[in-house]
Amino acid sequence: ETSAKIIDGKLVSGQIKDEVAAEIARMKDTIGIVPGLAVILVGSRKDSQTYVRNKKKACKAVGINSYEVNLPEDCTEEEVLKHIANFNDDSSVHGILVQLPLPRHMKEENILNAVSIEKDVDGFHPLNIGRLAMQGRDPLFVPCTPKGCMELLHRYDIEIKGKRAVVIGRSNIVGMPVALLLQKANATVSMVHSYTKNPEQITSQADIIVSAAGVANLVRGSWIKPGAVVIDVGINPVDDAESPRGYRLVGDVRYEEACEVASAITPVPGGVGPMTIAMLLSNTLESAKRIHNFK
Amino acid sequence: ETSAKIIDGKLVSGQIKDEVAAEIARMKDTIGIVPGLAVILVGSRKDSQTYVRNKKKACKAVGINSYEVNLPEDCTEEEVLKHIANFNDDSSVHGILVQLPLPRHMKEENILNAVSIEKDVDGFHPLNIGRLAMQGRDPLFVPCTPKGCMELLHRYDIEIKGKRAVVIGRSNIVGMPVALLLQKANATVSMVHSYTKNPEQITSQADIIVSAAGVANLVRGSWIKPGAVVIDVGINPVDDAESPRGYRLVGDVRYEEACEVASAITPVPGGVGPMTIAMLLSNTLESAKRIHNFK
Ligand SMILES: NC(=O)C1=CN([C@@H]2O[C@H](COP(=O)(O)OP(=O)(O)OC[C@H]3O[C@@H](n4cnc5c(N)ncnc54)[C@H](OP(=O)(O)O)[C@@H]3O)[C@@H](O)[C@H]2O)C=CC1
Ligand SMILES: NC(=O)C1=CN([C@@H]2O[C@H](COP(=O)(O)OP(=O)(O)OC[C@H]3O[C@@H](n4cnc5c(N)ncnc54)[C@H](OP(=O)(O)O)[C@@H]3O)[C@@H](O)[C@H]2O)C=CC1
Predict the structure, then answer these.
(1) What CATH architecture applies to the domain A34-116?
(2) Exposure pattern of B124-158 as b/e (b: 16+ CB <10 Å)?
């Protein structure tokens, strides 16, 4: 028997896209500016190509101009940096995104640091992360997937202040910034990772669990406190002979088990996934508004 | 009956100062460079003057040149920024420290951000904090008090990896960076603050407790798991009619109670306190070594 409320990321992301589209129309009408997002893709990984295609499609749907640069796998770091510098100087571009992962011969840190902090819509610049970590400072951009998790909690009126929260995973792009955001919202946060012993002892005390470990079926029903809220960021392929592709995508959480204990949960797919792109659009709009001082 | 081992910060800080002094002598002998620390003090708070005096004395003792600028309470932000700019350009200065708190009419953020990240020996620049938070990045400088806490754990051979750690307090200068450092060392970290309900439930599960709340007697014996290690960062004045000044300084932890449960504990004074200055000296040396590429 399923009791948890389903946190519908597909629905919410649709609402956010509508809101973003309306703001973009208002901005265009009022000051004649259209936000622009530049995407740099190096190499020809199939998954990265899909992500970039989806981002461009989403831009188009809300009225953001998108610019794409495709560079060959064996191009030099300097070439990537040159394109970033061009976009940094280009006033029609308000957001710059370098699709990760980069080829191995490039130093991710050098490339991400080159993106102007005013256009870092992914929010991955260390200066931005520092501001996220610090009391009394605000980041220019909140990283998209973490922002999407918070947005789901907010739109479902889930109280965060004073609650116990556990974040499983501590990557630069998901786990660590989610933990910092939950703490900024005055949750008491514990950070679980691969060195954590008996993680279920910690998760079973939490009012909010955010899992971003990338491990299918990691979080069992027994890991969850009755009534807790579960945000499942994981997107993990598992073998599935019945699927035409031979696999299907699942989260970190055993969904059926969790539904019996949690009060609310994000499904995979259709939970956090669609929020990430919606937040990218929202960050790009925010950037254009800030650069043009449009309120 | 007292059973906890005393973590002697006075002793360890003395060892570190000796090590720093020896390295400074070697550097001077080998390449003729003497590290320099510039301290900017605005206004005439008694406590700040004492801190600055102690820092200068400590510099002298290990062979670091110290430079001091005293500005009146009512000087402008621009004047402070001008002095910072001069020190940024001055090759005899390897560390720049702005004594906090600044007068209310100044924006701390603007002033701290002006310190060249290469000379930010306090480690308070958001770019530095961002690197501290991120996996695969390293800060140029670790903030002094947090670094002092970690150094005490290391020098007393206290294992951190895989342990449960709780940090009470999340300030930019102590709690938050301590939590990030413990996590980088692969502890499972929970961050407790003023919105945390029933903090004792969390602390009593921890193998390592770091308290930096600034609340006298906050951490009772019952908050501590038998055998846990307690690092007490708090320095709090409490009334004491028997003391000539009418008050004495205590930590956040009820020391006598804690001694009966903990396996090791820092006293106040003589625990973390003396480590902070030792780490400032160590950071200044590190900076000079890096700038002059001296190994
Ligand atoms: N919904 C979306 O839009 C997005 C979804 N994702 C998905 O989220 C998941 C995480 O992504 P990402 O953060 O990039 O992954 P990473 O591999 O970079 O990080 C995984 C983190 O989980 C921790 N971890 C791994 N195994 C365990 C375990 N058994 N128990 C506890 N912690 C564990 C790791 O710990 P340690 O640090 O010790 O190694 C690490 O911190 C993936 O499934 C990914 O596909 C990612 C981005 C966007
Ligand atoms: N040994 C040394 O060299 C140094 C010692 N110190 C000492 O360390 C202590 C902390 O300093 P600092 O970080 O600057 O102080 P702050 O006042 O900036 O921060 C205090 C932190 O503790 C939290 N807190 C306050 N009350 C409680 C409570 N009852 N329960 C749980 N958390 C609480 C606050 O939470 P919230 O964020 O919700 O307000 C805040 O995060 C002070 O005693 C200070 O004198 C400081 C620097 C150096």
Answers:
(1) 3-Layer(aba) Sandwich (3.40)
(2) bbbbbbbbbbbeeeebbbbbbbbbbbbbbbebeeb
Superfamily (CATH H level) for B32-116: Leucine Dehydrogenase, chain A, domain 1 (3.40.50.10860)
Supply angle C-alpha B266, B270, B274, rounded to 5.
110
Structural class in CATH, domain B143-273: alpha beta
- Alpha-carbon span A220 to A234, nearest angstrom: 14
Query: What are the residue numbers of the active site of A?
Result: 55, 99, 122
Closest ligand to C-alpha of residue B276 is 2
Whether A123 is in the pocket of ligand 1, judged by its Cβ within 6 Å, is no
Tens of pLDDT along chain B (295 residues) come to 568 999 999 999 999 999 999 999 999 999 999 999 999 999 999 999 999 999 999 999 999 999 999 999 999 999 999 999 999 999 999 999 999 999 999 999 999 999 999 999 999 999 999 999 999 999 999 999 999 999 999 999 999 999 999 999 999 999 999 999 999 999 999 999 999 999 999 999 999 999 999 999 999 999 999 999 999 999 999 999 999 999 999 999 999 999 999 999 999 999 999 999 999 999 999 999 999 999 9
Q: Which residues, in sequence order, are CB contacts of A29 under 8 Å at separation 6+?
A: none
**In the structure encoding, which two tokens stand for residue B180, read together?**
């990030």
CB A160 within 8 A of CB A152: no
B176 and chain A in contact, CB less than 8 A: yes
Q: Which of B99, B235, B247 to mutate to test the pocket of ligand 2 (most atoms within 8 A of CB)?
A: B235
Q: Interface pTM (ipTM) of the complex?
A: 0.97
Helices (H) and strands (E) in chain B, counts: 10, 11
What is the CB neighbour count within 10 angstroms for residue A192? 26
Both tokens assigned to A14: 């649709």
Q: Is A27 in the pocket of ligand 1 (CB under 6 A)?
A: no
